Amino acid sequence: MKGIVFVKFNEFIEELWGEDFWDEILGEAELPSEGIYTTVGTYDDLELFTLIGLVVEKKNISAKDVQFAFGTWVFKELYNMAPKGVHDFKDIFEFLHAVQDFIHIEVKKLNPDALIPEFEFLSETSNKLSFHYQSPRQLCFFCEGIVHGLAEHTGQKIKVSQSECEHEGGHRCVLDVEKV
Q1: Of the candidates 79, 68, 82, which has an alpha carbon nearest to the alpha carbon of residue 150?
Q2: What architecture does CATH give domain 71-179?
Q3: Which one-letter DSSP state was computed for residue 37?
Q4: Number of helices (H) and strands (E), helices first, in the chain?
Q5: Mean pLDDT value across residues 112-120
Q6: pTM assigned to the model
Q7: Integer Cα distance of 57 and 66 in angstroms
Q8: Three-point CA angle 4, 152, 116, nearest 5°
Q9: Are 140 and 154 in contact (CB under 8 A)?
Q10: Where do the domains of the chain lie?
Q11: How far apart are CA 12 and CA 22, in angstroms?
Q12: Does residue 108 have a pLDDT over 90?
């Protein structure tokens, strides 16, 4: 996983619970990187899952809630780093298409080894969009949070649910985004 995710997770944790808490979970995690992350580095996915697991244990919240909250928080950070042209999209559905059709392509150009999730759009009406979130990391709740962060940014009210979820026995993760 690219280091930017770890750097932003660090900032997220410190903003919510302080630098001492971040240091505490790093000390207990026994990570190969020792928690020393750079934005351009690449780190084992298990390090993020280990850190999330420690937050779950120490704060008595679910991994789903940690991922969702981080996704919501990190949207603005990723948006500020997005390539030119992305900021022109004001509609949430247009933006989600741009993520797949433009942003992820640009990320791959800069980082050919990046393992990026894919969106397979299944159906769309004027107020509902369903897409298959495909990622070997299975961070669908993180993706849900990013979609919520996007909605906050655009000022659009939405409801996000999963009609299928690998974590709940489904064969894939299908996110349904409905404008309300």
Answers
A1: 79
A2: Alpha-Beta Complex (3.90)
A3: -
A4: 7, 4
A5: 86
A6: 0.90
A7: 11
A8: 35
A9: no
A10: 3-61, 71-179
A11: 10
A12: no
| Cα 123 to chain centroid, rounded | 22
| C-alpha distances in Å from residue 144, one per residue of 67, 71, 164, 170 | 9, 7, 13, 16
pLDDT confidence of residue 151: 95
Q: Residue 83 is encoded by which pair of tokens?
A: 């390539």
- The pLDDT assigned to 114 comes to 76
DSSP three-state, residue 169: coil
Q: Coil, helix or strand for 83?
A: coil
Task: Find the helix packing angle between 19-29 and 45-59, rounded to 10°.
Answer: 120
CB-based contacts of 31: which residues, under 8 Å, 6+ apart?
47, 50, 51
pLDDT in tens, 30-46: 999 999 999 989 999 99
CA distance 52 to 9: 9
The one-character DSSP state at 85 is T
Q: Is the pLDDT of residue 107 over 90?
A: no
**Amino acid (1-letter code) at residue 100:** Q
- In the block, tokens 């995690």 appear at 29
**Closest Cα to residue 161, out of 59, 36, 68?**
68
If you search the block for the tokens 């934005």, which residue do you land on?
39
SS (H, E, C) 105-158: HHHHHHCCCCCCCEEEEEEECCCEEEEEEECCCCCHHHHHHHHHHHHHHHCCCE
